[in-house]
Amino acid sequence: MGLSSEAPELPVDLVTEQILTRLPGKSLMRFKCVSRHWLSVISSKHFTDRFLTVRPSPRLFMCLWDPNDDNRNRYWVTLSLAPSSTSSSSTTTPSSFVVDQDLTIPGMGGYNLQNFRGFMCYSNGSIALIYNPATAELVTLPFFRSCIRGKKVASYYFGHDPVNDQYKVVSLVSARKQFRGLVTVTSENWVFDLKTGKGCCSWKKAALTPPDFSHQQIGLGGGVCIDGVIYYLAWTPYKKVVVSFDIRSEEFNMIPVPYDENVRNMALLEHGGKVTLFDQTNLKDMGVVALWTLEEARSKKWSCKSRVLESSQMHLVNSIAFKIRGTTQKGKVLLKPEEFLSPFHILCYDIQSNDMSKIEMEGIPNSWFSLDKGPAFDLVFMDQSESVMEWETLIHGEMIDAAAPSTGSKDQL
């Protein structure tokens, strides 16, 4: 019996899951132009969901802006940094990153960067933006006007509910007023659903809040999303709290933070699939960090454990003040210096092994180090997932606003 001259056709599932998922997101965006079939496969929900489970190469994004420029159109840039060729194996956190000039984005930037499911959410002035590095799509969320009076500050928190496949953004708008030396704070929470489609996409004021929910909040850093619930750390009169927002039910709750008057430097992060407060108040002087883990949200039960840094690593922390900037996929904590110093580096702390290491940043333009006041900056580490989902898919075929970012104005609130 002779052999057929025709090669067997590869099953579609083999092509999509065994071949395409091994390619980087940028390549997949180019391959959409190959044929209608490839476009259909790569754009399908099945493929985009499957691609989210593939761990990408780690990448770091750093936003820089010049605070010396008093104009609204400040000079912004987002640097994209990839592991250097001399860095350690990809199975560990790279020891150095280098600026990728091809992926650096002039004119785009912000602060309070958050990374979730391949998207980067950040603030620019009083507005929120969401950026997908794989598709290079940048979306500016619509403005909304808060009713509270005073000098307003807006914070934004991004998350996803895996049950209903919903993406939502929570905003905390806070305003301070001072009268005869007395300072008062008023706040509002707003919710934006990314899946309601164009024409319906708008902010709505939060409705489901319990009786003990404080409307005198000030946001303290970024948030995290765990199992369909967004969490963020906030200050209320006389105490700090963790605010939770259930994406499905849109219900808010407050969880008191264990009180300690000596705690001055605390940040919220995810560790081991749980909400964790990383207290580095005594890191610089004593090499001690305290980890408060929320064991049960409903009962508001916390547990605490401490770590003491090895004396041989104290030189990494005893001369520079750092801020927490999230965790890697393996649960390592990232710390950025509060000041922009040359040569620039961040720290990576492995909670399990109690090991602190330095990650060097190479290729940052020297002009940023020569500014009179030094640049303002923020950064986010992305290694958990990469998304090839386009906004048409995310919000049922309709774009929100793919305009370039604006520094915005607090009057828009």
From TrEMBL:
InterPro entries attached to this UniProt entry: F-box-assoc_dom_typ3, F-box-assoc_interact_dom, F-box-like_dom_sf, F-box_dom
Pfam families listed in its UniProt record: F-box, FBA_3
The protein's name: F-box domain-containing protein
Signal peptide: none
NCBIfam families xref list: F_box_assoc_1
Domain F-box: 10-51
Superkingdom, taxonomy of origin: Eukaryota
